[in-house]
Amino acid sequence: MSTEAPLLEVKHLTAYIKTPKGEIRPVQDVSFSIGRGEIVALVGESGSGKTVTSLSIVGLNAKSIKYRPESSILFEGKDLLKLPEKELRKIRGRDIGMIFQDPMSSLNPVHPIGKQIAESIVIHRKIGYAKARQKALEMLQKVRIPDAERRLNDYPHQLSGGMRQRVMIAAALACGPKLLIADEPTTALDVTIQAQILELLKELQRETGISILLITHDLGVVAEVADRVIVMYCGKIVEEGEVGRIFEKPLHPYTRGLLDSIPPLHGSSPEKLKAIPGVVPNLLELPAGCRFSNRCFRASQRCFEREPDLARHPSGNLVSCWHPLEEEGEKADGAKSTARLS
Amino acid sequence: MFFQFLLRRLLYVIPMVFVVTLVVYSLVLLIPGDPVLVLLGENATEEKIAELKRQLGLDKPIIEQYFTWLSNAIQGDLGRSIFTGQSVSEAVAERLAVSLQLVTAAILIAVVVGMTLAILSIYYAGTWIDYVVRFISTLGVAVPHFLFAMFLVVLFSLKLKWLPATGFTSIAESPGGFLRDITLPALSLSLGGIAIITRHLRSSLMEVLDADYIRTAYSKGVSRWQALFGHALRNAMLPVVTTIGLMFGNTLGATVVIETIFAIPGLGQLAVGAILQRDFTMVQGVVLVMFMMVVIINFLTDIVYALLDPRIEY
Amino acid sequence: MSFRTVLRRLMAERLAFISLIYLMVLVIVALLAPWITPYDPEQMDVMNMMQPPSKEHWFGTDELGRDIFSRVLMGAETAVKASLFAVLIPLCIGVPIGIISGYVGRIVDDIFMRIIDGIIAIPAIILALGITSALGVNLWNAMIAIGIVFTPQFARLARGQTLQVRSEHYVEAAQITGAGTLWIMARHIIPNIASPLVVQASFNLSIGVLVETTLSFLGMGVQDPDISWGVMIQQAYNMINYNPSMIIYPGIAILLTVLAGNFLGDGLRTALDPKYKMDA
Fold first, then answer.
1. CA distances from A181 to A1, A115, A231, A341, B56 (A)
2. CB A213 within 8 A of CB A180
3. C-beta atoms of B213 and A109 within 8 A
4. Is the CB of B153 inside 8 Å of chain C's CB atoms?
């Protein structure tokens, strides 16, 4: 990894909404950075705050979501949270591109796809559609859509799911942005197509050197693509580290739980699939201590009373836990655990 | 492919036209009292009655009368008014142009004003502009046309004396005169339409603006205004196109009242007169023409909709 | 959904609730009208014609010296009758036709729908005028005409709903257990299509008043000595050069009644929505 200044720095991001029943914070004190050319995966289940975090970067959250004053998101030195809308609009599409989960509903059904790809070019380079069309054609070819020339005039409903996602990618990358935010790009696709899209993303990353923030709940995707992994739970980051270390030596019990719940590909099938017991706490009724404590087999009294900070563990990862897994050198399934569960 | 699509739509419409014209024809014959007696007076001799009946073709069975009438109608001959002897087709043709100008003007006003109000209401959502628009659209459907017409007449004709309270000038004769005379009547006719279009477009826009592809557009750097016009409007207009087609029938019906108030020599006025006088050939002719216009407009609307929505296969 | 639940939800919709109260008051006024008018609505007093509102005449007098307030109250009777017809006839005739058409399907459905679409294509006022003149111009025939004009709409609505409901599993289950067609229609279909019909009925109350006043305005509805707000407006229109304000009173009466019907309809639609959330 290079030592130059990171492309994106999220610092102490805290988002809140006022509801009739109280204030909810879908994202609490989240800090991380993305360097140039890095692929960072943001992992968590639904409700972990990963989507709100990603939308915060481009300012596309609902207006009811507000940010605490100490939050900042620095992109190439500029704080995106403090930028006026006009400036943000210049960055969207031109410097930061975004692709979303469902390509069918994310593309306008009444515009031909060529127009949708060319749109950001028209807006940011201020040239007409006719000229932008050439560039759109190039992009379509770059994302490996066959017979691109003819396809430019097609409508989204005439394409398959995988092709539509490629179109979305083409549209997002048309202006050559430095950062691509991909929100669950493969979740709505068939498994075989998933692999193709991920392959495409990796290739494009190699060609252009773009940074990618990949949001997903699917660890398989993470393993394929990511350089670094950030694990979120209930609005906070619980662990962060290089992809290899996360998979081989996860420190946080939640991370371990996620890894364990993937059904094994080889070896004999277990009698039961391992799920993490319990449920995600209601954001209105957060526990006093660690948010994962009610589901954690390692939880101690301390865990229930105080929230751990995100700190660097000697092995290299950042982790927010009083009893990270490696500390006691035991296996994660708690076979020899001395912890008390309530 | 398109031709097949057209054909299929036509095949649906034609039997409907048949059935309804039959119903209309026989409805008119329900009119109690023998029109022939009315014409000739109570003391007419049997001979004279039979003679007139034969002349008017009323001595043949109803089904035969219907088919004669229908085949004549297709060729453009709608018979003669029982009272004035004037050719119904001629009378209708004269009046049709007038009513069409009125109705077109009203629908144009409704569409332009309605769209503007809906867009403003969405763009300035939550502000006083939004509330005013919603107020207008709620009130607009509750005010009867003639009431609004009177209000306009009192304000603009009697008090301000800007516009005339009656009269009509064809656009062919004098565009200026046309605008001057048509303003109040067209405005009165358009109120209901404005309210309906505003409402439909507004709710359609709100639904569309919630869609994922709008979020995608924003992520590319599109501004709120561009998103509204370039993306949302095109999608939101589709259901409204159908609404406009349906509005035509209502507006046409309302011309009955408006033309009476403003003394405009259109189809509506002709219809009222004919119905009141029991001039049944005239009534048949007028109702047939009105009905056919509604059918044609709805048919065209369906086709326009199919053309506008790329998702529809033809 | 029980009646009480619906009522409770409706009460939460303030506008709709106010409208409901207004309409109930209107019905009471209509029933009691002949007895509660301060003056005989027909009593002419040419000496006092076209008086502005005063203590003796709350709404003033018309061109024949008659008390406008009393006439407005009497007009309520006509309005209520018109609304009733605009709702009852379509419900009793249109809905069964729609249900049969939707349930039986195929040829019967095709025929019915062509006829219904055709009738809908005739502009409503024209149709009402035509029927009224065919049957003879008086109040009752006007009401019948209004009822007939709105029947096709209800039939279409009922048919659409029936089509949706027909493919539901509980209908299939009933069919398998051998329930007869009528039984299924009565016990399964009607309760499940009732909601949109009730909402539409409320809107029809408003439209009924609008059509009745239009017909009366044209002289094709209520005849002397019956009073309708539409007739009052026609008379006021004749006097428009002398006293334009006479239009206001019947005009506002019409406006309020139509608005009430519309608000009630909107409120009912929300209250009857199965996805209703109290704090939404």
1. 20, 21, 16, 39, 81
2. yes
3. yes
4. yes
Cα–Cα distance for residue pair B270/A303, rounded to 1 Å: 88
According to DSSP, the residues that pair with A236 across neighbouring strands are A233
User: How close is the nearest chain B Cα to the Cα of C173, in Å?
Assistant: 34
Residue A30, strand partner residues? A13
Distance to chain A for B311, nearest Cα, Å: 7
Closest Cα partner for C82 from C135, C176, C149, C22? Answer: C149
Phi, psi of A73 (to 5 degrees): -130, 105
pTM: 0.81
| Token pair in block for residue B273 | 């007169």
Nearest to A171 among B211, B220, B309 (CB): B220
A298 within 8 A of A323, measured Cβ to Cβ: yes
Asked if B215 has any chain A CB less than 8 Å from its own CB, the reply is yes
For residue B222, give the chain A residue with the closest CA: A89
Q: In this complex, which chains have at least 3 CB pairs below 8 Å with chain A?
A: B
> Could you tell me if C262 lies within 8 Å of chain B, comparing CB atoms?
yes
pLDDT band at A328 (very low <50, low <70, confident <90, very high): very low
With a CB cutoff of 8 Å and minimum separation 6, the contacts of A155 are A109, A110, A111, A112, A113, B310, B311
Is B89-308 CATH 1.10.1270.20?
A: no
Domain with CATH 1.10.3720.10 in chain B: 89-308
User: CA–CA separation, C111 vs C100, rounded Å?
Assistant: 12
Bridge partners, A229 (sequence order): A41, A241
Contact A168 B309 (CB under 8 A): no
Positions of chain B with pLDDT lower than 70, given as ranges: 1, 27-44, 48-49, 52-62, 82-83, 313-314
* Whether A6 contacts chain B with CB within 8 A: no
User: How many helices (H) does chain A have, and how many strands (E)?
Assistant: 12, 13
B139 in C contact zone (CB under 8 Å) = yes
Closest CA–CA distance from residue B291 to any residue of chain C (Å): 5
